[in-house]
Amino acid sequence: NADNVAENSLVDTPSFANSISQPLITQRFSADPSAHVFDGKIFVYPSHDYDAGVPENDNGDHFAMKDYYVYSMDSVGGDVTDHGMVLSVEDVPWASGQLWAPDIAYKNGKYYFYFPARDKEGIFRIGVAEGSKPQGPFKANPQYIKNSFSIDPAVFTDTDGKSYMYFGGIWGGQLQKWATGTFDANASATDLEKDNQPALAPKIARLADNMTEFAELPKDVKIVDENGKEFLGGDHEKRFFEASWMHKYNGKYYFSYSTGDTHLLCYAIGDNPYGPFTYQGVIMRPVIGWTTHHSIVNFKNKWFLFYHDTQISKGKTHLRNVKVTELKYDKEGKILEIDPYAA
Ligand code: FUB
Questions:
Q1: Which residue positions hold the site described Important for catalytic activity, responsible for pKa modulation of the active site Glu and correct orientation of both the proton donor and substrate (predicted)?
Q2: Ligand 1 geometric centre to CA of 287 (Å)
Q3: Cα–Cα distance for residue pair 268/279, rounded to 1 Å
């Protein structure tokens, strides 16, 4: 059973940057970790990878996930508590499958768990499920969030209490199919296929106070170079692909993301949640495996990068395992680039 990962199946990988860069969860596969601090602990909300026997393709059909599990820890490097399954596709009235990268937010005494899934027509949408505890369980709302589409929701609550959802992903994430504002099933399976035109942008929408609806129509999140110019579709090492995340450091807004087919985690800095965000550089070099997806969280005055690779499955793209490593800044607030396998 590919879902039951034996400890002794751990592959010998290159030496690690530090001792905590080992798989955090070994009892099942896990990916796309969104980490948050609640009640003085770190809670991790990952995707739950398993082997559905679906052949690998550019559409991501092999990522056939059907439920979510939650984990927590009192300290980074300490024991990880497995809180069990918190939501299953069977309990999501609008969804048909492919429960991809989730996130969570706390407001009004409730926890709001956000997740992408394909609807009954095969179109990715973003749903929300509510719970009273960070460890779940969560009950899905009957409909997906109106005007939501594509994948990888990341919800950021600013110091003024306003919450925003960043989302989107090209290729299997379908963002290119929404380029005209409505879903075009016949659009490209990858991107705009226009290397000399601006790349597709991730999206942002402020959440209503009830946290279950958008307060506005989604807008583009502009990522620009040092001259204020948007990246082009052909800038594969810098343009947005998927895996949005937002965190604030010294009053600045750090938007980070994956470049997908070039396998980098990058970041860009802005002065407000909407951007534009000016590209700064790479956070993490490629991991073993095709996808790279992360979150950044402050815990007890240290910053951590949660991410995944495919150490346990020995490189199987759709069977990933969550890891964590410390993230550091220089005096100017630049993130120091991480090589996941450096000694
Ligand atoms: O886990 C499925 C998809 O792979 C995620 O939604 C993407 O970010 C990528 O990690």
A1: 152
A2: 14
A3: 4
Residue 195 has pLDDT above 80, yes or no: yes
Q: Is 242 a catalytic residue?
A: yes
pLDDT band at 4 (very low <50, low <70, confident <90, very high): very low
Parallel, antiparallel or unpaired: strands 223-224 and 277-284: parallel
pLDDT of residue 213 exceeding 60, the answer is: yes
Bridging pattern class, strands 302-309 and 295-299: antiparallel
Report the separation in Å between the CA atom of 227 and the middle of ligand 1, taken as the mean of its atom positions.
31
32 is catalytic: yes
Dmax over CA atoms of the chain, in Å, equals: 52
Q: Measured between alpha carbons, how far is 319 from 321 in angstroms, rounded to an integer?
A: 7
Question: Do 70 and 121 meet the contact criterion of CB atoms below 8 Å apart?
Answer: no
Q: How many residues does the chain have?
A: 343
Q: Could you give the percent of the chain with pLDDT greater than 70?
A: 94
Q: Which range has the worst mean pLDDT, 55-59, 101-105, 135-139, 223-227?
A: 55-59
